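Troubleshooting log. The previous structure file for this entry was overwritten by mistake, so regenerating from the original sequence record. Sequence copied from the archived sheet and checked twice against the printout by T.R.
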Amino acid sequence: MSEITQNNLYLLLPFKVSWVADMLSADEHISTIEAIRRVYSSAMYKQLEQESTKRWHEGPVSLYQTL
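Regenerated output below.
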């Protein structure tokens, strides 16, 4: 994949969500499933899934901090 577009961004999102959910689960002592639900329903994820925001460039710590 040489260029990230709105059409292929979905390929990166599971990895980002997984990292952030792992941190959330550990910090808040909640299940991984609950952490994943929170990430997917967050404002941060809504921004992350839009290529134009370029949030997909950010690492998991930065994304977690904005969660």
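Helices lie at 13-28, 32-40, 43-48, 60-66. Archived copy saved in two places this time.
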